[in-house]
Amino acid sequence: MPKARAKKVGLKRIDAAIDALVPLGFSREVVCKTIKNLLKVYGEDGWVFIEEACYKTVIEAILEEQVEETRMEEVKANDGTVSEEADNPAVETGETSRQPDTPPVVPW
User: Where exactly are the structural domains of the chain?
Assistant: First the structure.
């Protein structure tokens, strides 16, 4: 009886995603969970969207989840009330609303 082919360990799409995202500071568990959730949304053919732009979709999904968790913790800490900072991400980062960068007008 012929031997069964050995599985190629570490050469799957999920492994490539982990290899790309763990050095950016994301845990293996978070990467796997996020990709699993994205594949539920996009279907098994969703790898094209996941791999696009160096896993940008995965990174955005992870960061959105982290922001949501932070907001939920803040709501709990404030006895169920949402502070201005939780409603406005620009306040959290110290950013102000500003116009897009435009070159200064030089009078001639």
Answer: 13-93
